[in-house]
Amino acid sequence: MSIARFDKQAQEWDKNPQHLERSKKVATTMMKLCPTLNGRALEFGAGTAILSFLLRESFNEIVMIDNSHEMVNVMTRKVEHAHEQERMKPMFFNLDEENWTGEPFDVVFTQMVLHHVPDTFKILKRFAAMLKPGGRLFIADLHSEDGTFHDDEFSGHNGFDLNELTKLLYKASFIDITHENAFVVEKMRKNTLRHYDGFLLMAQKES
């Protein structure tokens, strides 16, 4: 999906109940895999910040970056409405094109975004550079699928083989990699309801 389409869908994004239900499952699984979530976090590709809002009590600060201006506008309004400006920081930032030069994070998390990123290894290395030694990375995304999840113009990844993703994470200086099934996405495809399985992966940056 192009940035223009994300911009167009931003105002209606939260009206899709699947987005909230999936985020609830991801948040629950994150807290199950790491009950001691705390400190300073970054959400990559935060969209309208549904997941960050579910996790906000776990962190002192969450920086929420996205490269869709309209998504950032929506999450900014939500943060202001919730009076969470001190803890939640929406930001337009394209990590595909820029290195993060700010303070490092204790946790980086991302949901259903990695399959849109052309160079997986490059972004994993950037995640590692953003984390403190021993910091944790959480990736929620699709298992490998047959290419029917997205429309024809999609040019990203058709989900991920976890063995291959794990190899890339080790190369990017992550250790202690674990994962489990966390959610299912339902979509109508050719008049048939299809189910696409999603995982949550947790990895730790080398100390």
What keywords describe this structure?
alpha/beta; globular; Rossmann fold; 31% helix; 207 residues
Structure notes:
It is globular, with a radius of gyration of 16 Å. It is built from 6 helices and 7 strands, in the order ααβαβαββαβαββ. It has a single domain, classed as Rossmann fold. With 207 residues, it is of the alpha/beta class.
The overall pLDDT average reads 94
The number of helical runs is 6
* Overall CATH architecture: 3-Layer(aba) Sandwich
Helical amount? 25-40%
**Major sheet summary line:** 7 strands, mixed
The count of β-strands is 7
Spatial separation of the terminal alpha carbons: 36 Å
What's the gyration radius in Å?
A: 16 Å
Strand content: 25-35%
Structural class: alpha/beta
Can you write the helix and strand succession as a string?
A: HHEHEHEEHEHEE
CATH topology: the name is Rossmann fold
Low-confidence stretches: none
**Based on the structure, what is the oligomeric state of the protein chains?**
single chain
CATH homology group = Vaccinia Virus protein VP39
Spatial strand sequence of the major β-sheet: 3-2-1-4-5-7-6
Domain count? 1
Shape descriptor: globular
CATH class: Alpha Beta
GO biological process, one term: methylation
Keywords: Methyltransferase, Transferase
Protein name: Methyltransferase family protein
InterPro entries: SAM-dependent_MTases_sf (IPR029063)
